[in-house]
Amino acid sequence: MKKITYIIVALMLFSGVVSAQNELNDYLITAARNNPALKAKFNEYNATLEKIPQVGTLPDPQLTIGYFIMPVETKNGPQHAKISLSQMFPWFGTLNSKEDVFVNAAKAKYEDFEEAKSNLFFEVKSAYYDLYFIKKGIDITLDNIRILESFKSLALIKIQAGKASGVDELRVEMELADLENNLALLKDRWFVNTVKFNNLLNVDESSNIQIPETLWIDDLIYTKQAVIDSLTQNNHQLKSLDYLRQSFESSEQAAKKLGSPNIIAGVDYTAINTGGIATNSGKDALLIKVGITIPLYRKKYSGMINEAIYQQQAVEEKKADKINGLETLFEKVYSEYADANRRIILFEKQSDFASRAIKILESEYASNGKNFEEILRMEKSLLKYSLELEEARADKQAAIAFINYLMGI
Questions:
Q1: I want to staple 340 with a disulfide (CB 3.0 to 4.6 A). Which of 77, 287, 301, 395 is the partner?
Q2: If 0-12 CB within 10 Å is exposed, 13-18 middle and 19+ buried, where does residue 137 land?
């Protein structure tokens, strides 16, 4: 029968954990839809996309119309008007190279958007875990206040029976005052952090936030080496730098193409007034023309090419520095994750020991009225261990969330 009860309780706790994780996922979706900073990043990406058709199309054709104020006489008659139409064609591949510059720039902007989204998700998760710890702190403090109130009643009974000193009551009052002060501080922190959390979601500041009774105990599902490998391949900041380098490579190719001649094709039409001369002698003139631009001044093209090359080298150095920084940051966070795991194990044991010690001390005090000060000291230790256990649980999940952010998840 007890085994069945334990199974039912375990299933209820698991159901509550799954529900809480689903609620957090809903908050992440809300943040992705509403957060103004994230929307700004996505609009920057869209703006860069709009540059692609701007550089990937031919220059506008030129149409000129001229009228001879003093007609030019020819043997076929006077010229009255002239119409010219011309189109410039960049050298082969120039437009594609220009497009590639902004295609890769747009990809870099999209990775910036993904980076902002991953960072937003981490901030939402971190704020959520902070709220969990504060809520548990409030709950645990309220429980301790109730326990101390019961100790106070017990002390009064012993004092009235002459089996304890009046100092016992004063000790309880002092502990209660400390707890009331801590409770007020925790409630202030709760208000501030709910405002922060709701602002991340860009919803009403007073919106209710669902916090689980017990935080899930998920472990990091990747090995340390797998995280490092994924970090160097999938981190959005590094991927953005890769696309930025490709954009500068395209800029280099485009600069080389710009140093090639442009082709100009056109047609001139001249209207001639025959004035009644013979039929075939007064036909209007039609001229087809083809030309090229001559890129004589090479310094500007060399400068554009060298600029793109230097930009590529700069991006490579930035990427190498970013990888070093990310690996250092990961090692720090991984140590915090391992420390949180150790603290969870430690404070679970310490809380159990303190609870058992309090029961023994309560029994002794009930029988002989001694060791009341030790009861209060042990109760204070239990409060400390309980709070530190919940803080360790929150820290562990925050560390996992930050590692996932570094991996671009």
A1: 395
A2: buried
Q: Kindly report, residue by residue over 133-167, the tens digit of the pLDDT.
A: 999 999 999 999 998 898 888 778 777 777 667 78
Number of H helices, E strands in the chain: 9, 4
Whose structure tokens read 């380098």? 245
Residue 288, H or E segment:
strand 285-292
Domains of the chain, by residue range, sit at 96-260+297-406
Query: If you count them, how many residues does the chain have?
Result: 409
How far apart, in whole angstroms, are the C-alpha atoms of residue 229 and residue 32? 27
DSSP annotation of 285 reads: E
- Tokens standing for residue 186: 């925790």
* pLDDT digits 0-9 by tens, 173-209: 899 999 999 999 999 999 999 999 999 999 998 899 9
Place of tokens 């692609």: 52
- pLDDT value at position 19? 67
Pair 235, 325: CB distance under 8 Å: no
Tokens of 392: 């360790």
User: Which numeric CATH code is attached to 96-260+297-406?
Assistant: 1.20.1600.10
For 52-88, give the DSSP string: HHHHSSPPPPEEEEEEEEEEEEETTEEEEEEEEEEEE
User: 122 with 409: CB under 8 angstroms?
Assistant: no
